[in-house]
Every structure is written in structure tokens, then in C-alpha cells.
Amino acid sequence: MTNPLSDLPQIQSLLSQPLIAALASRYSHAETVEALRGVIDALRKALLNGHEGTLPEFEGQAFAAEIEARIEAARTPSLRPVINATGIIIHTNLGRARLAPQALAQMQAVASGASTLEYNLETGKRGSRHDHVEALICELTGAEAAVVVNNCAAAVMLSLVATASGRTVVASRGELVEIGGAFRLPDVIAQSGAVLREVGTTNKTRLSDYEGAIDAETAVLLKSHTSNFRIVGFTAAPDRRDLARLAQERGVILMEDLGSGVLIDLAPFGLVDEPVVSDILKAGVDLVMFSGDKLLGGPQAGIIAGRADIVAALRSHPLMRAVRIDKLSLAALEATLRLYRPPHDPLQDVPVLRALFEPIEMVRARAARLIEELRPLGLRVAEAEDCAAYVGGGTLPGQDLPSVAVAVAHGTLSAEALAARLRHAATPVIGRIERQRVLLDMRTVSDDELPRVAAALREIAAG
Question: Which of 432, 433, 426, 434 is nearest to 453 (CA)?
């Protein structure tokens, strides 16, 4: 019996064919070889698994086109834009906050040439990258001083290493959170070189618990805002002002890890349980750490604000260089912070906040426009469907937002297959599946993204 594997050509013989040789010349020898190996390996695997069939015409145009398609696919950037139609505004897996045009422009301006990253134009000497945003952060939060690192976990780590290494950190059991990627606050404390002392219970911690735990080895009382979960029912926690007085009386530092952190009060708009940074500092907390890329609406960053003497110790600590913010994130953060100052209105100018508070009528109108685009395509499109959107990013758990989705189904494709086709569109569209339909939530789709959503569905409908 003839071994079907013997009909598979050698890579070298394929490279000698004119169409394949042209590809190697147009792209590169290495890329062409890699694509050829991918195709031959797939054919070999199919044959070994008993899937006998007609082998392709290795000298034909169709085979060369497949090789070229593989090369182009390999050249496609892995980190690429997508359209978030999930209804989760700050989607951790999809890049969190959408940046404002001003932030994008500032990043491009700084990236395209030299910049004043660590150069003082007044003195003509070396400057500090932290100076670009410190005054803005202090103005918006009321802090004495501020410094920025590459993310909030780094902010917590640096703060603890610089103030509590070799000493004790007192924290409530109910606040020992785990954030995304299985990073746990107790592990961060341990890595800082500090010793964790847990107080209270999961649902109740009293001021007396903290008071009884403080001794000569205590350096920090650490509060953590439980922004990604909620404990309800029989609960208790001391007021920040009482904790601040206790910390001052006993000569220890009171820190708070907000996780997210907002600069304006969201309660009047129906989103409660997210404390404002300035209010926390007014309550007497010595140091607060919060993110730049969640409800603040900027790039990934960890912002540390509070007492000037503590911030100075953080600035000069050797770990600072390992966790410092890069110039592009710094440029975007500065531009975003400026949107919180007059004449700007952050509720309109910061995309995350605009998406949170956009009137439902505008979301519904966007859904209607998409439905009109889809009607001629032959897809089964439901009418606009009321649904719930979410803030995401580990913030405001259990609080949803009114939204409107467009439900789409295909005549022959399953909902899973349709969602997969949307993920492989020229600009991938990421929705969610409910009741065998793909739901495209219009609260997280912007007006300028609608044509690309329609184009992706148009291509799928055309077969």
C-alpha cells in the first residue's frame, strides 16, 4: 500500500517553484518557509489521522495564495484594536479605559521626537518625570504631594516597601482582596518585606481591633477598598476619620488602596460606594493609591497621593526606578488629568465617564441606526433590546447601567460561530451570547465604530 505521506513535497522543492519563489522575494525567505511548513504540517497531521483526501495542487495559484495569506496573517499585530460591544465599559481584557483624543494627541506628540521627560527647560538641567503631573494631582485631590508609577499594584508595593519593610502591617480580614490574575493583597504585603497582621472578621472589624493590634513593630494601618466585591448584611467597619486619629495618636501611617479611584463624586448619578480621593485625604488618610486606567479614564498608571514626607521617601527609594511610569503613559495621564479642570467637563470629555452617563435615549438611537444598516443583509436582526451594561474593571460590583443591545442571528451559523466570525473581522467585534443570539451592546460602541460593526456583519452575510 502506498504511503500517502510520500506525496507531500519537500520544502526546498516548493521554494523552487516560480509562484513560491516570488513570495520569498516579496516577503522574506524565512517567512515563506514558515508558512510552507505550517501548510505541510497540517496536511501531514490530517493524513496521519486518517483524513485522506485530494492534496492541493502545489504548483497552482490557489496554493500560493494560501501561503501568502498565512504570511500576511503572521504579520498582523497581535495587539490590535477591537470594538467592545460587550456592555462592559472598563473591560480588563479589552484594554480598560478608552483614552480621550487629547490623551492620544499628547502621546503622539511625545512619541514622535525628543521630549522634556526628565529635562527642565528653565534651568537647562536634569528634571524629574514626576513633576509633569504632581501639581495636577495635588490640585485635583488636595494632597500635599504625589508620585506616579506604572500600575496600582506597583503603587501598593512601593508604598509598603518604603514604609513597612521588616515591620508590621495591620489590615482587616474583610479587606484582603484578590484582584485580577490571582494577585492577592496578602502576597503583595509579604513580597514587600512587611509582616501582615490580620484583624477583625470577614464581615466585621472594629476600631478596637486595630487599636489592640498596634505595637512597637507596627508601621502601617492598611485599608483596601473592596471595589471588586461587596459584603452585605451583618457588617461593620470603622470610620476613616477614627482610624486616622488612631494612627496619628500611635505614630503609624494610615494608607488606603482604592484599586480604582475617582476624582469626582458619582453618587448624584446613581453610582454609589466609590469614594472620592479628595474625601479620603480630607478624612486624614496619610497616603492613598489608585489607578489611572479605570474610573479616572486615563492610561495604566498607579497614582500615590498624600503626605509630602512619605511621598519624598517613595521618590528616593531604589524600587522607584523599577516601577516608574513610561513617557507615553505619563503624557496620556497628564492630558487626561487636565480634562478635569475648567473649561473642560470630565463627564463629557473623558470617554469612560461619558459612556457611563450617556442618556439611554442616545444609546437607543445608536441601536436603531445599526438595525437600519443591517436590515438589507438577510440576517435575522431583533429589534433593539433593553439590557444591562456594567462598569467593569473591578469597580462598582452589583451596580448595572441601563443599556440597549442589537441582537443578531444568522440563518446557518450558530451564535458561537457568528461570534467567532465577528472576532475575525477586519476590525474584530466582541459581543456576548444570550439565547442563541449575539448581542451587541450599544453603550460600549461609539458612533464612529458603528460603520465598522455594520461592515463586519455585511461581510459575514455575504458569505
Answer: 426
Give a yes or no: residue 2 inside a domain.
no
306 and 375, same structural domain? Answer: no
d(C-alpha 28, C-alpha 380), whole Å = 44
Can you tell me the distance from the alpha carbon of 415 to that of 418, in angstroms, rounded to the nearest whole number?
5
CATH no. for residue 322? Answer: 3.40.640.10
Q: What are phi and psi of 90, to 5 degrees?
A: -100, 80
Q: What average pLDDT does range 232-241 have in this prediction?
A: 78
Residue carrying the nine cell digits 500635599: 144
Q: Are 325 and 385 contained in the same domain?
A: no
Residue 93 CB coordination number (10 Å): 12
Q: Give per-residue pLDDT as tens, 74-103.
A: 998 999 999 999 999 999 999 999 999 999
> What is the tens place of the pLDDT at every residue in 401-442?
999 999 999 988 999 999 999 999 999 999 999 999 999 999
Instruction: Choose among 338, 11, 256, 306: nearest CA to 147.
Output: 306
Q: Which three cell numbers stand for residue 197?
A: 497582621
Residue 174 has a pLDDT of 84
Following DSSP, what letter does each residue of 239-254 receive, concatenated?
Answer: -HHHHHHHHHHHT-EE
Whether 43 is in a domain gets the answer yes
